[in-house]
Amino acid sequence: MPIEAAGLERHLRALEAIGDRAAGAPGYAESVEYVSARLRAAGWRVRVEDVPMAIWRERAPASLAIGASAPLRPGRDFRVPSYSAAGRVGGALRVVGDACDDADFDRLAPGELAFTGLGECFLAIKAGRARRAGADRKSV
């Protein structure tokens, strides 16, 4: 059975409307039900199995301050990437674009902390590029 573009767009919009669908997020169960129901309606036999998984959660709110200015607000001005390690770092922040290209780190000086946007690449790629540019493990 071919997938029609209009149908695909409708389903993508419905999944987007559910919101965060990551494992453990509020929209996860809703998205499983949505997809299961559509498959059943198309004649598929569907069996949903629970898969044990470690869920990452922040234990305390993150904080980030730039000099004497007001602290940045978590969730609005910055976010902690999932599965980040705990700890404290200090140093000057250097905005490095989306950090998906080695050239994004050209202006990163020793001791500076790389501050990235979301970008189009995985966090592991960003971290690897930051390390190659000389960033300490604590600063990525």
Verbal overview:
The chain has 140 residues and is mainly alpha-helical. 28% of the residues lie in helices and 4% in strands. It has helices at residues 5-18, 27-41, 123-132; strands at 93-95, 113-115. Strands 1-2 form a two-stranded parallel ribbon. The protein is elongated. The mean pLDDT is 81.
Sheet with the most strands?
2 strands, parallel
What's the number of helices? 3
Listing every helix as H and every strand as E from the N terminus to the C terminus, the arrangement reads: HHEEH
Number of strands: 2
* Rg over CA atoms: 20 Å
- The percent range for helix content is 25-40%
Can you tell me the overall shape?
A: elongated
N-to-C CA distance:
45 Å
